[in-house]
Write a structure and sequence with these properties.
Shape: elongated
Distance between the termini: 18 Å
Number of helices: 14
CATH architecture of the largest domain: Alpha-Beta Barrel
CATH class of the largest domain: Alpha Beta
CATH superfamily of the largest domain: Aldolase class I
CATH topology of the largest domain: TIM Barrel
Strand content: 15-25%
Low-confidence stretches: 336-341, 347-368
Oligomer: single chain
Number of strands: 13
Radius of gyration: 21 Å
Largest sheet: 9 strands, mixed
Number of domains: 2
Structural class: alpha/beta
Bound molecules: iron/sulfur cluster
Length: 368
């Protein structure tokens, strides 16, 4: 958020609809004024108080003085031919990434929940940046606000939000859950609970809490179903090994009745042989889950590669023959580094190195 360090004002997006009612009530305003504001923000998705034309000028002035309405600045925007827009946003102490993904009939937004991440998954650019800080609920919602402003000019609305950007949302539990509640609240943005996905690397205690705290879709980044391999790829597995993760998922499913999505990145010579497919089938036994297979997106500085098409087919067929649907998902926006943390990592590299000739991506970053 572009809020100066000295700005101690409450951000408008940190107020729930009932919080707005209370505030305006405390100011002696009639109840319908708060309802007008709720309509501007949550129905019309208007995030500038100056544009709230049916509010009296004196109230708009007070709102702009006493609340912060700043949204993060877009440091760079990279659009790819397949409909992805990667946004790099300013924030206090670091940069935040959001990605807009345009499809026929729907528009998704991938949001970040932290600046950096402390979980250090070995295949992830964000993990290499280390942890800087948690984002507030308002900062998570600000990413949605900015994306809405962009896609509204194209006649679209953000219909899906996935917490798959920088950071582990369940490590920033209260703020992530607060943002989900606002995105799905009937009196707030009102997105379908099926269209808002919390994605976790497997924080078992928080998965148990989620079952009763919030309604949203749950995705788990699994990437290996054998403890030694998963710990190598995702150190969090040492703290919450597969048996504990599975028990938490079973509990979640018993309480919510919801299907779980398992995300599985396929990495060449690492986790995509028939042996790992067997491990995965064993792990899934007793769970109602669908599996998304994502071929690793090779990039400089990472010790991993994309598997061959044959490896992908063999792994997928092994699951399909055991009645486990596992579509292969290809990342949109490869040309703009749309995997989590890649753009922020590139930006840091760019800022500390001399650009190469013909390096269009880096040049765009510098000029932006
Ligand atoms: S994959 Fe997710 S949890 Fe793992 S380091 Fe990257 S951002 Fe953090």
């Amino acid at each position: 958020m572009q809020t100066p360090a000295t700005d101690t004002r409450t951000h408008a997006l940190s107020l729930t609809p009932s919080g707005l009612l209370t505030l305006l009530n405390d100011w002696g305003e009639p109840g319908f004024r708060a309802r007008q504001m709720v309509e501007w923000i949550y129905s019309k998705r208007v995030f500038s108080v100056d544009a709230m034309s049916n509010l009296p000028a004196a109230l708009r002035l007070r709102l702009s003085r006493e609340l912060s309405w700043d949204l993060p600045q877009i440091i760079s925007r990279l659009d790819s031919a397949d409909g992805a827009s990667k946004l790099l946003l300013s924030s206090e102490r670091g940069l935040i990434e959001s990605v807009i993904l345009r499809y026929e009939g729907r528009t998704s937004l991938c949001v970040s929940s932290q600046v950096g991440c402390r979980l250090a998954c070995s295949f992830c650019q964000t993990g290499r940046l280390g942890f800087v800080r948690h984002l507030s609920t308002a900062e998570i919602l600000a990413q949605y606000a900015i994306a809405e402003q962009i896609v509204q000019t194209e006649g679209r609305r953000i219909s899906h939000v996935v917490f798959m950007g920088m950071g582990e949302p369940l490590d920033n539990y209260d703020n992530a859950v607060g943002a989900v509640n606002r995105l799905t609240g009937k009196d707030a943005f009102g997105l379908s609970v099926r269209n808002v996905t919390l994605s976790t690397s497997g924080l078992a205690p928080q998965i148990r809490s989620l079952a009763t705290d919030v309604r949203a879709a749950l995705a788990v980044s699994l990437h290996a179903a054998r403890d030694d391999l998963r710990t190598e790829l995702m150190p969090i597995n040492k703290r919450y090994p597969l048996a504990e993760l599975k028990s938490a998922l079973m509990h979640y499913q018993q309480v919510t009745g919801d299907k779980i999505t398992i995300e599985y990145i396929l990495i060449r010579d690492k986790n995509c042989s028939v042996r790992e497919a067997k491990d995965l089938v064993r792990f899934l036994h007793g769970l109602r889950a669908k599996v998304n297979l994502i071929p690793f997106n090779s990039h400089p500085g990472m010790p991993y590669d994309r598997p061959s098409d044959e490896d992908i087919r063999t792994f997928q067929s092994y699951l399909a023959e055991r009645s486990i649907p596992a579509p292969v998902r290809y990342s949109k926006g490869l040309e703009v580094s749309a995997a989590c943390g890649q753009l922020a990592a590139k930006k840091l590299e760019t800022l500390t190195s001399i650009p190469k000739r013909n390096d269009v991506l880096n040049r765009n970053l510098i000029l932006s």
